Amino acid sequence: MRQGAAPLALAGLPLAFLLVVLVAPAVRLVAEGWPTDGHSLQALWAPWQDDYLRWRMVWSFLQALLTCAAALVLGLPLAWVLARLEFRGRSLVLRALMLPFVVPTLVAALGVLTLMGPHGVLVQLGGPDLQGTAWLLLYGNLFFNLCVVVRAGTDALEQVSASRLAAARTLGASPWRAFWRVEWPAIAPWLMSALCLVFLYCFAGFGLALVLGGQRYATVEVEIYTLVAHELQLGQAGVLALWMLMLTALVAWGYAAIERQLATPGRADRQPRQRPQGAGHWLLLVVALGVFMLICALPLVAIAWKAIISGAFLSSGEHAAWRVLLEEDTRMALWNTLRFSFSAVVLATVLGLAHALAARRSLALRTLVFLPFLVSPVMVAFGLLLLYPSWTGNALLLVCAYALLAYPFVAKSVASALDSMPLYYLQAARSLGASPWRAFWRVTLPLLAPALRRGVAFAAATAVGEFAVSLFLSRPEWATLTTLIYQHLGRPGAANLDAAMVLACLLMALTMGTFALIEWRGSREPDHA
Amino acid sequence: MKHGIFSFLAAAIASLGLVNAASAADTAELRVLTHSSFAVPKPLLAQFEKEAGVKLRITKAGDAGEMLNKLILTRAKPIADVVYGIDNALAPKALAAEVLDAYNGPAATRTAVAPLPAPLVPVDYGYVTVNYDKAWFAKSGMALPKSLEELTQPAYARLLVVQNPATSSPGHAFLLATVGALGEEKAFDWWARMRSGGLKVAKGWSEAYYTEFSRNGGKYPLVVSYAASPAAELFYAKDKPTEPPTGSLALAGGVFRQVEGVALVKGGSQRAAAQKFVEFMRSVPVQQQMQTEMWMYPAEAGVARADVMKFAPEPAAFDAPAEKDLAARGADWVARWTRVVLK
Amino acid sequence: MLELRSIHKTWEPRRGERRPLLNGVELRVASGQTVAILGASGCGKSTLLKIVAGLEAPDSGTVWMDGQDITRMPPEQRHFALMFQDFALFPHLTVQDNVAFGLVEQGIRKAQARSQAVEMLRRFGMEAFALSRVWQLSGGEQQRVALARALITRPRVLLLDEPFSALDAELRVHLREEFRQHITAHGMATLWVTHDEAEARAVAQVGWRLEQGVLQALWGA
C-alpha cells in the first residue's frame, strides 16, 4: 500500500468537471475569434506592444503583489491573536471575517465610500478624500482578501506542535524569537497557499477594484470583459486571456511546487489557547482587533447603519425600506439563494474532496486546483453559451458555475490538512482490519472534518456572494438576493437605495447563520476555531 | 457524524431535484431574450401566457450591448425566439449580423411615436441626458451649464461623471449625441478637452449614479442619466417631496433619444406565439406600464401619460449621427473614445 | 507460524541515492513465541515491521503465515496488529470506541463491540476511562489502550514498534511486565522491535540484532 494515496482515478471526477465546464468553453471561444489568416504569431505579441495594455498588465501584477504584502503584514498579527489567545467575541470575529466575501461588490463599494468617500467619515475627520485613488483600490482588495490570509494563518498556527514551541522557549528563545524560528517556518507553506489565492484574485480583479479605483486602475480582466461582452473582439480577448493564463499559471505552479516540498506530516499536540497575559499580549490584541475593525468590519457596519437609519421611518409612504423584506420577489430571491448555494456547496465539497485526495502525489493536479481562478470568467460564460447553446437556461449549468468558483477552497483546505496529517493513524486503521475505503471513511474523513468545514464555509460564502456568476444568463424566476440588490440599484431613487441596503443586511445575516450552522458541529472538539 | 452526512446528502439530492423541477413541460415554451432592465408586471405576463397558450421563458442577458452580442454569438443555434431591448444605437449592428427576422403584423404597420428600422418594432423610447443635483448647485451658488461648450470649462468639466460607452448603454448614447451634434472631429476634440478638465468615467449607470453622483455620497453633481430619472427619484422618494431632487438638462448635443424595440429571432421557433408577443408588447396595458416600470415613454400613439411623468418632460430636441455613419463608423467611435479619454 | 524469506529492501534518502536497508532477512516466529529485534535507530527495524504488516512491499522476498504466501495480501486481511511508539489512538473517538475499532471492522455490531471493549479495558484496569477522550490520558495509559485495541481483535501476530520509547524508565519496566503477561495470556506470535536490550531480554524468548541489513542471532534462536 502506498502511504495514504487515493487512486489517481479519483482525479477523474474533478478533471472531467473542469474540462466540460471550464476548459472546453474557453478554448471554443478563443478558437471562434482566432485569426486564421496567418497573423496569429503577430497577434500573440500585440498586447505587449500596446502601451495601454502593457500598463494594464504591469499594474494588475503590481497591485496584486502590493495587496499580498499588505495582507500578510496586517493579517498575521490577527491570525496569531485568534489562534493563541482566548478572548470574548473570538468566534464572532472568526465568522465575521468572511462576510466581505459575501457582500455584493457594489454594496461593498457603497459601504467603503461611506467611510472614505468625499462625504465619508475620513473626510469629516479632516483626512483626504480617497475616492478614485490607488489607496482605495488597495483597501478594497484587502477588504475582500484579508480573511483568506487570516483563516489560513489561524489554521496553520493551530498545527504547530506545542512541544516544539516549549522546546524553543526552554532553549532560550523569547516569545518573538520562538515565533520567528519555530512558528513562522511551520506556517509559511499554508500562508503561501493563501497568498497565492489572494494574488490570483487581485490580479484578475474585477468587481471592487473597478468601482473603487475607477477606470485608471482597472485591471486586464476588465479589458477582457469589454472585448468579449461589448465588442465581441474574441481574438484580441483570447490573446489577452492567454497571457493572463500563462502568467498566473506560473505563479500557481511555483506555489504548488513549494507547498509540496514544505509539506511535512505533523504531530497532533496543539498549543492550547490562553488568556492574554501581560502588556505585550494585550497590545497585540488591540492592534489586531483594530486591523480587523478597520479593514473588514467598518464597511459592513456602515451598510448596516445605512439600512437601520433608512428603516427608522417605518411607516412613511408605500416605499418604506423594511417593507422590501415582505415582498414576494424577496422571498423568491431568498429561496433561490438558499437552494442554489446549497446545491453548489454540495457539488463543490464532492469535487474538492476528490481533487485534494488525488492531488497528494501529483504536482500537476495541485496546480490545477487554481484553474478556476486562472481562466477569465467572462470567457467561460460566453464560451458556455457558444458550446452548449441548448443548455443556456438550465439550472444545473448555473449550479455548476457556482461550484466551479467555490470548489478550490474546499480542495485547498483539505489538501493542507492531508499534508499535515500524521501517517500512523491510517496505518493503525489498516492493521486493525480496515480496508482502504473503510479506513478513509472511519479515520481520515473524521480527522479532516475541521479543515473540510472551513473549506465548505468559504465555498458557501463564495456561492452566496456569487462572485462573477452574474455574467451567466439568468432567468427572472431564478433571481437571487444578489441579483435583486443589483436590480434595485439599477433604478434611481432613495427607496431603491435603502431597499438594496436592507437586502444586503439580510444577505449578511443569512451568511452568518450559515457559518454558525456549518461550524456548530465542530464545537465539541477541543481548540476548535 | 454518519447520520449527519446521510441526511445532508439526501437533502442535497432533493434540492437538486427542486432546482431542475418541471423542466419537461407539456405546454410549448416561448423563449424571450431581454436585457437586465426588463420589467413587465407579472399579471400581464400571466395573461399573455393564458391567451397565447404558451409558457414564457424569459432570459435576462446583461445590458443591451451584451445581449446583442450573445445573440450574435449563438446565431447558428439561437437561444431565443423573440428578443426585446435592441435600440436604435445597436440596430445597425443587429441588422448587419442578420440575426433578426421580418415581421409584418399590425404592430409593425401602425405608426409609432418613435421609429426603428425594420424588422425591429418600436416598443418604448427614452432620452439620455445629463442630470444635475439641485441641492449641490443651490449650495455652491453656481449656475447650471447651458451648453456642451460651457461644460469644457474646468469649473464644470470636473463636475461631470459619464459612463464608458464600451460597457454602458447610456454612456454609448451620450457619445453618439455628441458626435451627432458636433460631427466626429469636433466631438472628439470636445472629449479631449473634457478629459483634461477632469471628467470622471464610471463603468456603468449604477456605479455612476450610486457611487459618484453627489446625491448619493459622491462628489460629482452632474451625471449622464435619463430624462425620466428625476421622475423616478420623486416616485421612489422616502418622505413626500413636491418636486424631484434632481433635474434633467437639455443641452444641445447632450440629448440622445433611445428607442427600444422587439423583433423575431432568425432561426427561432414558436413563430405564432412570438408574433403574438410582439403584439403584446405594443398593447395598451403594457405600454402604459412602461412608464413606471421601466421609466420609458410608450411608443404606441395615444397612450395616457402617467401622472408622475409630468416631472420628466420630453426634451424638445435631440441629436444623433446619420444612420449610415453609425453603421459604418460606430465601432471606431467607441475605440477612439477609449483612446482619447482613457489612455 | 510467521516466516520471512529472503527479504530485500533498499532505501532512497535522496533522489538517485539508494542504500540497502534489508539485505536478505530470514526470520521465523512460532505461535506463542515472542521474538525481539534490536538495532540502532534508522537501521530498518520499523521498515521490517511495516513489511510484515503489509503496509510496505519488499523489493524482493516473501512473507509466509501458516504455510500461506501473504506477501501480496493487503494489511486489513492479514490479521496482524501493529502498535506504535506514538500510540496512534484516534483522537476523534473515545477510548472505548478506539478499542472497539477492530471489532466493528470484523462486522460486530457497535453496541456489542463497545461492551466487549469495556470488558477488555477492565482487564487492563482502565474501565474508568471508557468514555474519556484520548488526549486526557497519560502516555502509559494511552499505550495500554493501544494494546487493548490490538489484542481485542485476536490477531495472529502482534507487532510492536518500540512501544515504550516515549515513556519514562520506571514506567517502561512496569509496563513491560504487564504487556508480557497479556501477550502470554493471548498466546499469539509476537515481533517486538526495540533498542533497549534489557527490555528485549525480559520479554522475548528469541533475540536478533539487525545490522547492515542482516539479522544476527543473539539468544534463543
Q: Can you give a write-up of this model?
A:
The complex is a heterotrimer of chains A (about 525), B (about 350) and C (about 220). Chain A is about 75% helix and about 0% strand. Chain A has 23 helices and no strands. In chain A, helix 22 runs antiparallel to helix 23 (about 495-520). With about 350 residues, chain B is of the alpha/beta class. Chain B has two domains: about 25-125 and about 260-305, Periplasmic binding protein-like II (D-Maltodextrin-Binding Protein, domain 2, 3-Layer(aba) Sandwich); about 125-255 and about 315-340, 3-Layer(aba) Sandwich (D-Maltodextrin-Binding Protein, domain 2), CATH 3.40.190. In chain B, strands 1, 2, 3, 4, 5, 6, 7, 8, 9, 10 and 11 form an eleven-stranded mixed β-sheet that branches. The mean pLDDT of chain B is about 85. The radius of gyration of chain C is 17 Å and the shape is globular. Chain C is an alpha/beta fold and about 220 residues long. In chain C, the strands form two sheets. Chain C has a six-stranded mixed β-sheet with strand order 6-7-8-3-9-10, sandwiched between helices. Chain C has a four-stranded antiparallel β-sheet with strand order 2-1-4-5, with helices on one face. The chains are: A mainly alpha (about 525), B alpha/beta (about 350), C alpha/beta (about 220). Chains in contact: A-B, A-C. At the A-B interface, helix 6, helix 12, helix 15, helix 18 and helix 19 of A face helix 1, strand 2, helix 3, strand 7 and helix 11 of B.
Reading off the top of the CATH hierarchy, the class of the largest domain in chain B is best stated as Alpha Beta
- State the share of residues found in helices of chain B, binned by percent: 40-55%
The unreliable regions of chain A are: 524-529
- The CATH topology of chain A is MetI-like fold
Q: Round the Cα radius of gyration of chain A to an integer and report it.
A: 23 Å
Question: Which structural class matches the secondary elements of chain A?
Answer: mainly alpha
Rg value of chain B: 22 Å
Structural class of chain B: alpha/beta
Overall 3D shape of chain B = globular
- For this structure, what is the CATH class of chain A? Mainly Alpha
Order of helices and strands of chain A: HHHHHHHHHHHHHHHHHHHHHHH
Report the portion of residues of chain B in β strands: 15-25%
Q: In which range does the helix fraction of chain A lie?
A: over 70%
Q: What is the count of helical runs of chain B?
A: 15
Largest interface: A-B, 71 and 68 residues
Oligomer: heterotrimer
Q: Cα distance, first to last residue of chain B? A: 58 Å
